[in-house]
Specification:
This protein is α+β, with helices and mostly antiparallel strands and about 150 residues long. Helices cover about 25% and strands about 45% of the residues. The protein is built from 3 helices and 6 strands, in the order ααββαββββ. The chain has a 6-stranded mixed sheet, covered by helices on one side. The longest helix has 23 residues, at about 5-25. It is globular and about 50 Å long. The model has no long low-confidence stretch (mean pLDDT about 95).
Amino acid sequence: MERSLARAIEWDCTQHILKFYRYLDEKRYQELAELFADDGSWTRLNVELVGKGNILEAMRERDDWLTAHLVTNVCVDIIDDVHANTTQYITLYRHEGWKESKGPAPVVLPLGVLRHRDQLVCINGEWKFQRKTSRAIMVNRERVTIYGN
């Protein structure tokens, strides 16, 4: 594969990942769901969510969460011109029950450090998540009881 094509795929996949966390933190759940293939899946908190409708339904529990997902160490492994696998590390900060009217939340220690692995597919020129999984690497065990797969 030509390096210019590989670079374009790496860029597009990285931007796709960053959009996911932006939409998640900004509660833009419809846009987040559109980042998945129609039959795409997201294993979240040990529950496999298949399809955009199930992903949207699961986002209801986040209504009173304030989150910040800090994304690092993004690695894109290109399979071919329409398939790629990615790995990225997430440092997660989360407040439950926080109201925007209270202003900024206080800074706390991270809830955890997660490793996400994704399978992406290019459909009609647009990258989509075919499968998204996460695994807790480090967690605040006082607050986290589900560690991922």
